[in-house]
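Q: Could you predict the 3D structure of HK97 gp10 family phage protein?
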Amino acid sequence: MKLTLQFKGTEELSRKLLQKNSTAWKNVANKSLAEMHNRGAHPPGTPVDSGELRLSRKTTKANPGKSFSGQFGYTKDYGPHVEYGHRTRGGGYVQGQYYLRNNVEAQRKIYRNDLLTELRR
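A: Sure. Here are the predicted structure tokens for HK97 gp10 family phage protein:
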């Protein structure tokens, strides 16, 4: 299952910085991806039972091209169930922990501020 999260409202800033200087955009994007990856390593970044979910963090660095994107996510197949919640065999429900959403929300403002800082240079 693939999870897709986007920073809404930063597309125009990203596009402007990419037009101005693709290296600066790449540095800002990769800094954000690295911060999200590192935030996931420490509590409360990723829920830990056996530690496999935390160890499955993967980051694909951003490269400017037709679509400017980089990726951060988890490769364990049960990641979405921990994120969004799930039913148990007995009919109960386990609430989602929203660890990835919280990480993205924390990074959203930082990413926007980094884009604005680079555009001002």
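Q: Anything worth pointing out?
A: The chain has five helices and four strands.
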